[in-house]
């Protein structure tokens, strides 16, 4: 039996590379799905090839237009663009499987004419009964019984009102291919029986529609998840039939990307895990640059000593053959740390504008922000850009600059020194001596340091902690002296007075 890969396997490279992303629109986009889109996109951009985005929406019970729109939203937000497909069109329209039934019927007719597929009338119960009678395990499934049906037998089944399914006549030989990530893979002869490509009633299955679409759209590289690897043998068998029938003239290269595991590292990241929810991560405050960077690390690296890089650097360096076949673990803390690195890479104006939706969503600023609020944000944003990992931290860090402090965090109050009232009183006295027109960070720091550190002999943490809590209501805030400058002398002193009054 032959174990060599199909001689017509594509050798496409450079601008001839064509990859595809073909999800089913069910549920919310999750990070595993988006990682698949990302690696296909990165490979297309690296080679100068094309990415095709089509939708496998033939499961009417589960597919939804809402999920489709969310898929488009997810890719658009991450700036994963495509060259052909839904929303853009192209030479192989339509790009929704639900609109391609006539195309599938034409291909089926060609396979029927070439003898690659045959009518099958066996029911699941009949297959089980034959296996039992032959002493075969039921798990072995279909026994290729219908391969040799006579015309009389077929006519008899049709007379009973049965409609045939169509099965591919699987070659009785080893199926071998070279996985771009995992190396040579062989499925021994007899590993799988003749399989259904079109159900009774003319309903095409995934094992048919997916390779047919790839063939007709000229897909040269099928880059997909490891969980789909068992279906590769069937796809390769079908490709041989499609070539013989004149539907295509080459077999694509395959690469199976590693699983994405949960943080515990023992099982696949569940679609129901909040960390897998792309939009929940966006709501928490990921920027697209940071999340794109982290997702690319789930199975690939730009260098052994480097985790942070730009979109363009990813494109220049990415090659599917360098993807690690071992499972990748989703690490939320590392993802957020990388996001923080990308936040610090933003231009100040860009960073400030990206904070607006989070401040609006928390009711910190109006919709839309007033001119005064935008001015305050422009001044305040540089104070927190170096210390934020997630944009969702903005309301907590900056809210006190836009509204009065109504309550104090419990941990902030617990951290106040026993002499907080004395420290606050000394702070107020020191600030009252700073002229309103000179109420700037350097003058504020000098006044407080002279009174609290030099005068009372306090350490900075004890000296400035009460003022920080008074101004922001929190134990952690933007730089204290700059925050006071933004709030102004009257507001700063009023907030110190308010907390002092609660300390007795």
Structural overview:
Monomer. It comes from Microbacterium aquilitoris. Its main location: cytoplasm. The chain has helices at residues 31-47, 65-77, 101-114, 124-134, 151-159, 206-216, 232-244, 278-284, 288-296, 311-317, 332-345, 348-361, 371-384, 394-398, 410-414, 420-432, 441-455, 460-472, 480-487, 489-502; strands spanning 18-21, 50-53, 84-85, 117-120, 165-168, 175-179, 183-187, 196-199, 203-204, 221-225, 253-257, 260-261, 328-329. The longest helix is centred in the first third of the chain and has 17 residues, at 31-47. Helix 16 (420-432) crosses helix 17. The protein is elongated, with a radius of gyration of 32 Å. It has a four-stranded antiparallel sheet. A three-stranded parallel sheet has the order 1-2-3. With 504 residues, the protein is of the alpha/beta class. The chain starts with 17 loop residues before the first strand and ends with a helix. The model has no long low-confidence stretch (mean pLDDT 95).
Question: What is the gist of this entry?
Answer:
This protein is of the alpha/beta class. The protein contains 20 helices and 13 strands. It has a 4-stranded antiparallel β-sheet with strand order 4-5-8-9. Strands 1-2-3 form a 3-stranded parallel β-sheet. Strands 6-7 form a two-stranded antiparallel sheet.
Based on secondary structure, the structural category is alpha/beta
Estimated share of beta-strand residues = 5-15%
Total count of helical runs of at least 4 residues: 20
Mean pLDDT equals: 95
Radius of gyration: 32 Å
Shape verdict = elongated
Main beta sheet strand tally, sense and closure: 4 strands, antiparallel
Strand elements, count: 13
Uncertain segments are: none
Instruction: Report the end-to-end length measured between terminal Cα atoms.
Output: 91 Å
Helix percent band: 40-55%
How are strands sequenced across the largest beta sheet? 4-5-8-9
Keywords: Aminoacyl-tRNA synthetase, ATP-binding, Cytoplasm, Ligase, Nucleotide-binding, Protein biosynthesis
GO molecular function: glutamate-tRNA ligase activity
Pfam families: Anticodon_2 (PF19269), tRNA-synt_1c (PF00749)
Enzyme class: ligase
